[in-house]
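forwarding from the other thread:

> can someone predict this with coenzyme A?

sure thing
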Amino acid sequence: MTTPGRQQGLLRWVTQDWSVNAGYLDSQLVLAWFRAAQWAVRHGGLPGRVFAAFYSLFTSLFWSIELPPGLEVGPRLRLYHPHGIVLNPGVRLGADCVLRQNVTIGNVVRRDGTEKGVASAGDAVEFGAGCVVVGSLHVGSHARVAALALVLRDVPAWGVCVGNPAEVVRVDDPGHRRPGAAVG
Ligand SMILES: CC(C)(COP(=O)(O)OP(=O)(O)OC[C@H]1O[C@@H](n2cnc3c(N)ncnc32)[C@H](O)[C@@H]1OP(=O)(O)O)[C@@H](O)C(=O)NCCC(=O)NCCS
């Protein structure tokens, strides 16, 4: 039987992204659904894993999103236009990150069968629409990945990277980043 404490824990866990996605009900619902699946695989035993399997199938088929429940994602994740987002189960994201439509963070399997691995990102990293990040690399905190960028190498903290393959075109001064970041 579920204890009240666990229920409170579940409520807090499921709503951890809710307020930062205010005004975007679709994003709020996707993230609550994702966090419920995350909670279920960690605390729900076999029924939780069954729910998580249903979550993955339903979310892929009907929402066209792959946010695996095993992902490590910090709080206050923001989604703008939650469509076509695909994250490898090994991805790790810090707190306050932003994902826009059609972001892919994935692995590459070489012809010899070896894998390049998957990326991690620090806090407050912003991923532009349609960007693709592949390989075992790190995107530093507060970095901004441009729309349609193909990221194959590390990005420094506060870096701005654009293009295919992506290049770091600027590293912002933390005190003077131009406003207007991280909106849909
Ligand atoms: C990358 C990004 C974060 C940079 O924003 P910024 O910090 O204000 O920087 P700037 O606009 O000055 O761009 C820096 C340089 O990168 C170039 N650039 C910006 N975005 C680019 C992109 N997507 N692809 C290629 N080059 C790009 C700019 O032309 C500029 O080049 P220049 O210095 O030669 O003039 C922003 O352009 C971006 O792509 N954000 C994602 C937006 C998005 O996905 N919107 C979808 C809404 S539905």
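The radius of gyration is 17 Å. thats all i got for now
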